[in-house]
Structure formats: structure tokens, C-alpha cells
Design goal:
heterodimer; A: 264 residues; alpha/beta; Rossmann fold; 9-stranded mixed beta sheet; 23% strand; B: alpha/beta; FAD/NAD(P)-binding domain; globular
Chain lengths: 264, 743
């Protein structure tokens, strides 16, 4: 059994950060980087499956990122992943969801896993689209927002519970190979102890360029569905107008304001 | 460079006080520390650390002006002679180096006579009502006449001139806590005179006026002169003078108006010396800025700058009290102990780094014990700045930092140790915790009535850990066995596994436990954890809370259960209720609060057996026994360390070696269950000394005492004077064997 887990290194959420002068992104020095929260759960799901199965099995973590993302990959190796892959090309700077999915599709196709596990979304970009786009490029059966997973690698069917609105749960059987996006709370992600952290550096971590994947940089970038033009802080608003007085005073003022805005 | 939030700019405005200028509005007011003039290194470094932390003025504790004016056995500063001038000049020099003003609070204190065997003088022969055996005033006082008054005036002026020679910028005359002779002239409780020094307010303030006038005449051009004034003795409470005291809206502002022309600023507080816990109000009973309703009246009668205190920790509150006109200067004692760097942290735009005082009064409890240096639950470096060289904000890189550490247990000790280790640059620190959140017993202690503020112990550390997340990892929901520890991969192992309350009622009062009692098996016998963590309810009607501990746990549980409608009796073998709370100044309100809830008390009573419907008490003085109803017995007797993990690891040095573990240590309650302050201290110390030759033993600290043939070199870390000297290690087997066999 082989499971590919796609992971992303994200900026830790914080109120204080700086934007690059040209607005093209967040200044890297102003943020802490960490593994995307959802990916900890998908990695854990993969590791639990591997533990239940046999010793021939492999969990491979893949990311599209620069050298700074190797720290996150090593963390995944420390938790128990067997092998890590980092894909990068300078043309991938600022890549959007579809471009990342296009690149991952080439990796997954080459790896030919039984399962691809992705996080439902990343905590910084919050598109919630990479996993599904990847499934689309692979033309692979897929289920999003999985909160329970039952898979026997001997068979070729995974039974999943899928979280819908209003507390509804959908139960599905999906034939493998399949791609699942994993929801937080599905398990309790493990922590790596210091021995595992120390040993992680001995595990394979390979870096591949687009060319080595057989991809053309120009064509890949044309897969983009959007391009980020600029990031900026929102303009400060005018503040709040506090309405004082008795309930009837306040009500009268609200009526006034609504009328003004409806006609203005 | 300042990243200060502009809304705090007002706190950094300069304020003129006589011939001096305060660089901002933060004043560390007089507070006791245990240093006095006899430990000048301690005094200087303790105070100058705050100067470095940005306070505009830093004061000594109350400073007595002559042997007859002293407070012994309570530790006060002294300006009796030239030796004291030299000693306190060290404080002034160090404070000045950091750009702050140095202040001294002069007092002729009539409180005690232990230590100098002097006569006690007073306005009238009205003996002290507090601790007569200590104060030596049982029997009466010498009622001063005009000769004595003139002599005392001379003593004050002499002391003021010594203050100038020592380098002080501010001379503050103490008229607060009813603990100086001058204020005892003002307070009707103590002044029954019929001459020109008694009767009307003008008469009662005459002595203080004369002293201030003398001081101003002699040193007023060189020093700022202030008065520390207890504006209200809280007579509406049981802790005042029942109508014989001072009311803020009466003599309180009256004195200010009367003496205003003689001071450059006012330092206000409330309360009497017997109940100065109403000034140093604990967080449980006194919210931040609790003195406002008394002290804010001062601005009606003076335009001079006014200092208020009130356990200020929140910069927004500080701004509010300035901008509202309540006061002009933020005074602090305990908040400055918990964090000497409050002003700088606000100025540097990082108020979240302020380590907030939790209002536990552990600091005060040490002074109340008459002798030891203070300790602070939140700030383990407090009082250790000089003698151990610990700076609250600076941590030097550990010589052995190329190592990984696992700290087992994220209670106060473990959290503190992990933070210090990370700040000292240890390569990786894992703080492993069995529960899902950090905090250890703080997670439920903060649920006890009124102890929510103690949660700052955890929240501040959580913030610090967040900032150290590059090297410090919190690993929750993980309980490590001995094998897990050996396999963890850390070169250094710190066990901080805490303790829990005895289920058998064992303590020194009941060395074999309480007969018939087993809280594990019985639903009518409860430990604090069973109540607070497991949610077990008392059964039946009558609840006894049995206190063999003497601090907060028993009285807090008694309060909690009484509030829940139980009929509670607090039983203790100690002579008083919650005896440690006498030192933390909480005892009067503890007892009053429990009484109001209908709790009854039995002191000097050892509980020798219980069966779920009654218990037997033995009077520890008369040995008379008595059966009392007891449907539920709450056991607050002693705590047992969770020491098995450490002992198992230590017993197999071969396995430690095979696992590559170079150091195994234990800290906090799992060594010896004690105060939270002790746990945090032990974690801090290990972190500071992790690279010493044997981190399990504290390094020698500087001792300030006279050494025959000594010199200043003797008062430095590492000096020969504090070394153990030549040590010849004995070779001996673990478990005995005669030394003679080995020699």
C-alpha cells in the first residue's frame, strides 16, 4: 500500500505581519512557518493506515515549496512518513491553486499510490480547492471533507463519512485509487519524539524540478485560474457612530439612517 | 526604538517634582523586600533592576531613622549612621546608572522593640493592639513631651541629611499604615493629648508639619520631598479604628490641605498597620485600583502630583486613572516585583509580555515571617538578582545548549523550566504533558473561589512559549512511561510530574493516616482532586473540611462547598484558621468570609477517625475527645509526590547511559510538594544552572554578612568566600557500606 499525502507549509496565523513593498505577498521574515493544520490530520490518517497494514507500505509526503518548506517535510518524516518530495521551480513563485494541483498531479501519477490524502484547506489561503483540483487532473474518484475513514488495503474500496452542513453525515464507498480531503478532528495527530526528529534527517528527502517531472514551466503556469495582483491592508473605516438615548431615540435614528442610505 | 502604542503616551510624560523631574509616570513605591541596609548588594540590584525596567523613581522599603525607631524583627531599611549611608549609596548609584530617581521612605516606627531593646515612644499611652508580644508594647508606652518631640525632629533631619549624602533624590516621610510616630499623632485612635499636639486636626498634624518644615529647610533644594499618606483607615470595615481613625473625606483630605505647601507630591494608600492587607489587597478580595474611591478625593484639595496604588498591571487601567484625573502617577509595589520591566514593555509595544502580579501576597508573607528575602510566585528572579545573578529579562546561552531536553509535566515547574531552557538556547525542548492543556494543578486551582487571577501563571507562560516555538514544542495528551522516556531521544530529562493530595488523610498530625478513611474507596471521603477534577459531590448533610495544610486549599474548599449550600465545619489541628494566611494578610477576610457563609470552626483539633456519619476529634492541647457529625470528610492534609517515574529512572543508571541520557533531574511538587512559588523557582533554577557541574544541586549564592578579613571580592558569584572549599569525594556504595572499607 502506498499513500501520498500532500502537505503545505503555511504562515502561522497572527495579527502582526508585514506585506512586501510591492504588495505581492507577505514579508517572509514577519511570519512563522508551520505545517498546515489540516495536513497534520491527513498525515496522521495515513500513518494510522500504514501501522495497521504491513511493512511494505509507504507514506510519501509531497509539497510544492521553496527550501524553507523542507523544515516542514522533515517534521513529517519525524512523525513517521517514509519519504518526502519537494517540487520547486522559480516559475512557481506565487502559483495559484490550479498550478499547484497541476504539478502535484504529475507527482502522483508517477507515484501511483492507492490513496491520496489532502487537507480540506490551508489555513492561510483557505481556497479549499487544491485537493479537488488535483483529483480532477488525475481523473481520480474523490471525496471531500472526510471525517472518518475505513480502508483495508487488501480490498480496493474505502468507506468514508463525509461532513455536510447542519450536522448531516454522508456515508460513501469509493473505489481506490482515490483522493480524499481530510477534515480536522478525524483523529489526534501524533507528535514526534526527539529520537524520531533526530532520525528524520536520515530519511529520503528528494527535490525535483518541473523538468524532472516532465513538465514545461510555461504550460504549467497557463493552468492558473487566477493571478494575485496585490495584497494590501484594508483602508481604515470611518469608525462607528454610537447611538445613545432611550430605545425610542435609538430606533428613530436607525430609521433615519436606513432611509438616508436607501435613498442616497 | 519605541513601538509604543500612542494610547499609552500619557504614561510616559515627564512630571516635575520640586527640584527633580520624573522621566515618566511610573513609581515603584516603598515596599518591603527583606534587604534593608544590611544587604546592600541585594538592595541595590533589586531596585536598580526596576530602574533598568523603566520606572521613573525607585524607593527603598520603609527606612527607620534611629535605633529607637526600628521595626525589628521586621526587616526595614536603616539610615542610622554613616555605614548605612555607604550601604544605601550603592542603591542610589545603581539606580542612577539606569536613569531613575532614588527615593527613601523615612520613618520613626513605634512598632516593636525586639533587636534594639529601646524604649517605645508614642503620642499617648495607648498600647498597640497588634502582636503585643512582638511589639513589646504590652504594658504601655512613653508618652512624649516637647523635649522628646524636639529630639525626634532632630533625628528626622539628621536622617534626611544622611539620605542626601547617600545620593537619594526623593525623601518621603511616612504617614501611612499607622506605622510611624508622626501618623500616630494624626490618628485619634492613638492621640489623646490635650496640648497643642492633640485635639484638632491642625494640632494633630503639627508634629508632621514641623518635621516636614525642618526637612524642607535643610534639604528641600536638593531633594524632592513627598509624604506617604494613609488617607483612610477604613473605619467602616472591621479592619479600621471604628470611628477613631482617619476618613478620606475628613481628616484624609484635611491633612493634605494642611501640609500641601510642604510637599512636592503625595503618595497615597489606605489601611492600618494591623491590616495592611487592605492596602496590599489580594486579587481574590480586592480588584485592580481598589483604593480609588478613597484616594481620588485628594485631587480636590491639591494640585501637586498624586501617586495612587492598587495592584496596577493593566496599561489601559493606568491610562484611565491618569486621564480621569484620579491621580497623576502610577504607583506599584507588587506589580513591580512580578515584573520589574512593566514600563519598558509598554514603551516597547509589547504589553503582552507583562508578567502580571496575581495578588497572592507570597511576597508579603516572607516579610511577615520577619527575616527572609521575598519570593514572587510569578517572578522567580525576584530577590535573586544579586545573590544568584539572575536578571529577569536576560538569559545567557547555556554552555551545553547543543542538547535536546524533554521536560515531563507542564505544570508551573515544568513550564517555567522549559521556558528558561529555551531562552538559554537549548537545541530543542519538548514539554510533554499527559493532559490536553498545560497548567497542571493550576487548571483546577483557578476554579476555586476568587483565584481566577492565578490563571495568569499559565497564560503568561503560554504566551512566552508561543514566542519560543522555534525550539520549544508543547506535546499534549502524552503520558510517558519509563521506557518512553528512555526512548524519547533527549540527552537531558527533567521530571516535573507534580503531586496529589493524600487519600488517607496522612500528615504529621496523623502519621498513619486517619483511621477508617480511604478516599479512593469511599464516596464520603474526598480529596481536593476528587472534588475539583472528578466533580464528586459531598454526600449527606454535614461536611468537615480537615486542614492539615494550613494555606489556601482547605479554606477555599470550605468556601466553595458552603456556597453550594453545604453545612461546613472547618477543622484543623493548627491553633488558627488557615495559619499561613496570616502571613499573606488574608486571614481576617478568610475567617469573616467563611463565617458569613455559615461555616463553623474547630481549631487545635486533630481528627483521628471517621466512618461516614461521624468523626472523632481530639483536642491537641487538652486531649479531650469528642464525636462530631461528619457525613463527608474533605481531606486537605498533605500532598504526595508523583515520584515513581523519577525514582525508576534514577535507579537504573545503566539504562540511562544506554539511552544516551546525560542528565536526569526533577523539579517542583514531584520532589517536594510546596507553594506554587517554590515549584516555579525550582524549575527556573534548574534552567539557569543546567550547564553547571551538577545541576541537581543549587550553585552557591552570594551571602551578605561580615567576613573576617573580608573584602568586596567576597560578595561576587564564584568567590572563595561562598565556595565549599576543598571537597574530597567519598567513595561509597549506594545503600551503605562502611567508609572505612573504602579508605
Amino acid at each position: 500500500m502506498k499513500i501520498v499525502v500532500t502537505v503545505k507549509q503555511v504562515a502561522a496565523l497572527d495579527d502582526e505581519f508585514e506585506l512586501l513593498g510591492d504588495g505581492s505577498g507577505v514579508h517572509p521574515d514577519s511570519v512563522e512557518l508551520e505545517l498546515n493544520e489540516w495536513d497534520a490530520f491527513s498525515l496522521e490518517a495515513a500513518l494510522q493506515l500504514r501501522e495497521r497494514a504491513g511493512s511494505d507500505d509507504e507514506v510519501v509526503v509531497v509539497t510544492v515549496g521553496g527550501t524553507e518548506s523542507e523544515e516542514t517535510l522533515v517534521g513529517c518524516l519525524a512523525k513517521g512518513a517514509d519519504r518526502a518530495l519537494r517540487i520547486w521551480d522559480s516559475s512557481l513563485q506565487g502559483a495559484d491553486v490550479l498550478v499547484v494541483a497541476r504539478v502535484l498531479a504529475a507527482v502522483v501519477a508517477h507515484e501511483a499510490p492507492d490513496l491520496v490524502l489532502c487537507g480540506v484547506q490551508s489555513s492561510d489561503a483557505v481556497n479549499g480547492a487544491t485537493g479537488m483540483a488535483l483529483a480532477g487532473y488525475l481523473e481520480m474518484p474523490h471525496v471531500a471533507v472526510v471525517k472518518a475513514l475505513d480502508y483495508d488495503p487488501a480490498g480496493s474500496v474505502a468507506t468514508v463519512r463525509r461532513e455536510l452542513e447542519g450536522g448531516l453525515v454522508e456515508v460513501l464507498r469509493v473505489g481506490t485509487p482515490a483522493l480524499l480531503t481530510i477534515q480536522t478532528g478525524i483523529n489526534e495527530p501524533r507528535y514526534a519524539n526527539l529520537r524520531a526528529i533526530k532520525q528524520a534527517s536520515a530519511k529520503p528527502l528528494e527535490v525535483r524540478t518541473l523538468a524532472e517531472l516532465g513538465l514545461d514551466a510555461a504550460k504549467v503556469s497557463m493552468a492558473a485560474g487566477s493571478r494575485r495582483r496585490k495584497l494590501r491592508h484594508p483602508d481604515a473605516g470611518g469608525g462607528a457612530e454610537m447611538l445613545d438615548g432611550s430605545p425610542s431615540d435609538v430606533a428613530a435614528r436607525i430609521v433615519e439612517l436606513v432611509r438616508e442610505r436607501m435613498t442616497g | 526604538m519605541s513601538h509604543r502604542d500612542p494610547r499609552y503616551d500619557v504614561l510616559f510624560e515627564q512630571v516635575a517634582i520640586g527640584p527633580k523631574t520624573l522621566r515618566n509616570r511610573f513609581i515603584q513605591v516603598q515596599h518591603c523586600v527583606g534587604a534593608g541596609s544590611d544587604r546592600p548588594g541585594f538592595q541595590a540590584r533589586f531596585r536598580s533592576t526596576k530602574a533598568e525596567g523603566g520606572w521613573a523613581a525607585v524607593f527603598t522599603e520603609s527606612c527607620t531613622i534611629a535605633p529607637e525607631a526600628d521595626y525589628a524583627p521586621f526587616v526595614a531599611a536603616r539610615l542610622w549612621d554613616e555605614g548605612d549611608v555607604r550601604n544605601l549609596s550603592l542603591m542610589c548609584d545603581e539606580v542612577h546608572e539606569h536613569g531613575a530617581l532614588a527615593g527613601v521612605g523615612l520613618a520613626y516606627g513605634p512598632m516593636t522593640q525586639a533587636g534594639t531593646n529601646e524604649t517605645r515612644l508614642a503620642p499617648s499611652n495607648v498600647s498597640s493592639t497588634s502582636n503585643p508580644h512582638l511589639s513589646g508594647t504590652a504594658g504601655g508606652l512613653w508618652c512624649v513631651d516637647r523635649h522628646d518631640i524636639r529630639r525626634i525632629r532632630q533625628l528626622y533631619v539628621d536622617a534626611a541629611m544622611r539620605a542626601v549624602r547617600a545620593g537619594f533624590d526623593i525623601v518621603e516621610v511616612n504617614l501611612s499604615h499607622t506605622s510611624s510616630i508622626l501618623v500616630r499623632f494624626v490618628v485619634p485612635m492613638y492621640n489623646q493629648r490635650t496640648d497643642e499636639y492633640g485635639g484638632s486636626l491642625e494640632n494633630r498634624t503639627r508634629f508632621a508639619r514641623e518635621v516636614l518644615d525642618d526637612i524642607r529647610t535643610k534639604v528641600g533644594d536638593q531633594c524632592a520631598i513627598s509624604v506617604r499618606w494613609g488617607i483612610d483607615t477604613l473605619d467602616e470595615t472591621p479592619w479600621g479604628f471604628a470611628g477613631r481613625g482617619v476618613r478620606a473625606d475628613g481628616d484624609g483630605v484635611g491633612l493634605i490641605a494642611d501640609l500641601d505647601d510642604l510637599v512636592d507630591y503625595w503618595n497615597l494608600n489606605v489601611g492600618t498597620v494591623a491590616h495592611w492587607g487592605e492596602d496590599a489587597g489580594p486579587a481574590k478580595t480586592h480588584p485592580e485600583n481598589h483604593q480609588a474611591r478613597y484616594t481620588q478625593l485628594a485631587k480636590q484639595v491639591t494640585n501637586k502630583p498624586v501617586v495612587n496604588v492598587g495592584r496596577f498591571t493593566n496599561p489601559d487601567t493606568m491610562v484611565k486613572v491618569i486621564e480621569s484625573g484620579q491621580c497623576d502617577l502610577i504607583g506599584a509595589a507588587r506589580p513591580s516585583i512580578a515584573d520589574p520591566f512593566i514600563p519598558r514593555k509598554i514603551d516597547e509595544g509589547r504589553p503582552e509580555d507583562i508578567r502580571e502580579c496575581i495578588g497572592c501576597n507570597m511576597c508579603a508573607s516572607r516579610w511577615e515571617m520577619r527575616g527572609p528575602a521575598l519570593v514572587c510566585t510569578q517572578n522567580a528572579t525576584s530577590a535573586e538578582e544579586f545573590r544568584r545573578g539572575w536578571h529577569p529579562e536576560r538569559f545567557d546561552a547555556a554552555a551545553n545548549r547543543a542538547n535536546d531536553v524533554v521536560v515531563i509535566g507542564a505544570g508551573p515547574a515544568g513550564m517555567e523550566c522549559a521556558i528558561v531552557l529555551a531562552k538559554r538556547g537549548m537545541r530543542r525542548v519538548h514539554l510533554v504533558e499527559a493532559e490536553s492543556e498545560m497548567g497542571g494543578t493550576m487548571r483546577w486551582i483557578t476554579q476555586l473561589p476568587g483565584l481566577g487571577a492565578w490563571g495568569r501563571i499559565v497564560s503568561w507562560r503560554a504566551i512566552q512559549m508561543q514566542k519560543l516555538s522555534k525550539s520549544l514544542t508543547f506535546v499534549p495528551r502524552t503520558r510517558l512511561t519509563t521506557d518512553d522516556v528512555l526512548d524519547y531521544g533527549a540527552e537531558l530529562v527533567v521530571v516535573a510530574t507534580g503531586s496529589s493530595w493524600a487519600a488517607d488523610g496522612r500528615s504529621g498530625f496523623n502519621p498513619d493516616g486517619i483511621s477508617g478513611v480511604d478516599a479512593v474507596a469511599q464516596d464520603w471521603a474526598l480529596t481536593p482532586e476528587q472534588i475539583m477534577v472528578d466533580g464528586q459531590q459531598p454526600v449527606g448533610n454535614s461536611v468537615i473540611v480537615y486542614d492539615g495544610d494550613g494555606y489556601f486549599m482547605a479554606h477555599e474548599l470550605a468556601e466553595k462547598l458552603a456556597r453550594e449550600g453545604r453545612s461546613v465545619t472547618y477543622v484543623t489541628p493548627f491553633p488558627t484558621v488557615a495559619p499561613y494566611t496570616e502571613y499573606t494578610l488574608e486571614q481576617p477576610r478568610v475567617i469573616a468570609g467563611l463565617r458569613e457563609l455559615g461555616v463553623t470552626f474547630r481549631t487545635q483539633a486533630v481528627l483521628v477517625d471517621a466512618d461516614g456519619s461521624q468523626a472523632t476529634l481530639t483536642d491537641s492541647v487538652t486531649a479531650v475527645t469528642q464525636a462530631v457529625p461528619c457525613d463527608t470528610l474533605v481531606l486537605v492534609t498533605q500532598r504526595n509526590s508523583h515520584d515513581s517515574l523519577f525514582r525508576e529512572l534514577r535507579d537504573r543508571p545503566d539504562r540511562l547511559q544506554d539511552a544516551g541520557i546525560a542528565g536526569l533531574y526533577h523539579i517542583g511538587d514531584c520532589v517536594q510538594p510546596s507553594f506554587i512559588a517554590q515549584a516555579i523557582f525550582s524549575g527556573h533554577r534548574l534552567g539557569r544552572e543546567i550547564d553547571s557541574p551538577d545541576p541537581s544541586v543549587a550553585l552557591p549564592f552570594i551571602r551578605e554578612r561580615r567576613i573576617i578579613g573580608g573584602s568586596d571580592d567576597d560578595y561576587e558569584l564564584g568567590s572563595a568566600a561562598i565556595s565549599a572549599g576543598e571537597v574530597v569525594p567519598l567513595t561509597m556504595e549506594l545503600g551503605g557500606g562502611g567508609l572505612a572499607d573504602q579508605v
